[in-house]
Amino acid sequence: MPPEQYETYEHDVLIIGAGGAGLRAAIEAKAQGVSVGLISKSLLGKAHTVMAEGGIAAALGNVYSDDSWRVHFRDTMRGGKMLNNWRMAQFHAQEAPDRVLELERWGAVFDRTKDGLILQRDFGGHRYARLAHVGDRTGLEMLRTLQQHAVAQGIEVYMECTVTRLLKDGDRVCGAFGYRRSTGQFIVFRAKAVILATGGIGKLWKFTSNSWECTGNGVMLALDAGADLIDMESYQFHPTGMVWPPSVRGTLVTEGVRGDGGTLRNSKGERFMFRYIPEFFKAETADNEAEADRWYTDKKQNRRTPDLLPRDEVARAINAEVKAGRGSPHGGVFLDIASRRPADYIVRRLPSMYHQFKELAGVDITKEPMEVGPTAHYMNGGIRVNAETTATAVPGLYAAGEVAGGLHGGNRLGGNALSDLLVFGRRAGQHAALYAKSLFGMPTVEATRLDAFAREALIPFQGEGTENPHAFQAELQETMQALVGIIRKETEMREAIARIEQYRQRLPQIRVDEGRAYNPGWHTALDLRTMLTVAECVTRAALERKESRGGHARDDYPSADPRFGSVNVVVCKRDGAVVTSLEPILEMPEDLRQLLREKG
């Protein structure tokens, strides 16, 4: 296939991923006066950001004037079990309020206090109510606002394109190679800088809140290009996903239900979370049901209900109740807001949840409890980046949003994801543009490399095997769900590694028929190479961390080990093989360390 047959475009800054981080990066890069290209795996406006429901965490102080970036920083570090990149956590807490107010200036419509300020709700792990929200559709409103602002700036958007490889000129990244999903036409992007904003990896598991796009493409692209990954073992299982009916199992039930007063109960009607309050939180958590109820009516106590503990704690508690035989009929627990709030309040504050359960499960949440259980939700780790610039170890390559690791450490607090997109999306766009402006001339791309990438992408059409890509993907998801799920142990994870290697040997046997235009079998076949590598990264990192901390829980090492409390698990590729290592966390300055010593 000669080079002239490739559809080719040139931009100073190329952004792969059109969710919250990608759009915010595009807006900032455009503001720096450079040419910007934005690639979307799906249609513009359909990115996974729309699935974020509860709110944007930012210390605006609109509900509690005592809130500040310092308290937000402390909550984020504690929630992340101190594995966080403290500099990222500092930038995030300091800059999130400005990013929310900026979103408001661009037209975002938030729920309001009686005084007309942006209303903020409670979420797990946050000392104060600090989530700016639009009912339970915050991600949708955020994406709508960013999208309209980006389009108004004249940013070039390439919809329904999948990137399969990054292009390099020597050591630095100089573009991307992929194809149009609608036609199968190969497409080449030449660029001075590339930003990865591709989201997460949730489709590795059978039960997930993630949409179909979340197959780990950005992680694989960065790894192949020479970047490092960090904290891949610390995957977050959200405690509340739908468990019934089976066709929608894993669909997210926003933490806003609990933030607005909902409580978790087992089959005996007990508020079981009182059994699972960690020592660390006991000083500031309601000790019994009556006190927890008073917490809701007198927020001046600033105390947490155990239903709003960090997500890793709640998910493991639900898992324990189900295993103990105290679960709901369909293998979850009950989430009750019907007995806690009036029907009109529920419909007004949680409209998406009301319609979701009414239409998908036949449950009226204003009259009866929901059945919920843990669901694969969020990649706490990801590509290792510089805190200030979001640059990776590969010149010209940047990353922001869920695909980038460091901010959340061992466990993400609810609401921090959306503010992460805004804060580090902006930083990525700014610094990628500055880097691009420092270069003269567009980098070169070897035609032979493009031909090799094209041949690689067409292999599924040429195989003579009988493997079905969709069945293959389902088998991998079953393996990850069973062997590298919410609770792990060495024997099962080593079995997972063995299976992943067997799957890799079977890849050449995948057969795809029909043409390249809108061929979901081909798309899935290409995703499988990515998913196998990312699954191996998660599993090997989990084997390396021989303790339980945050989103990483091991049955054979059930306690946190101080030896692992100040190290990150780093994953990279060496001679084509995935390897792991332990690296010490950068020491925190004394003024920030002092914040973490403060009570509350």
Task: Tell me what the structure shows.
- There is one protein chain.
- Strands 1, 2, 6, 7, 8, 9 and 16 form a seven-stranded mixed β-sheet that branches.
- The longest helix has 25 residues, at 520-544.
- Helices cover 36% and strands 17% of the residues.
- The protein has 600 residues and is α/β, with parallel strands linked by helices.
- The chain contains 17 helices and 19 strands.
- The protein folds into three domains: 3-236 and 377-437, FAD/NAD(P)-binding domain; 240-375, Succinate dehydrogenase/fumarate reductase flavoprotein, catalytic domain (Flavocytochrome C3, Chain A, domain 1), CATH 3.90.700.10; 452-580, Methane Monooxygenase Hydroxylase, Chain G, domain 1, CATH 1.20.58.100.
- α1 (20-31) packs parallel to α12 and α15 packs antiparallel against α16.
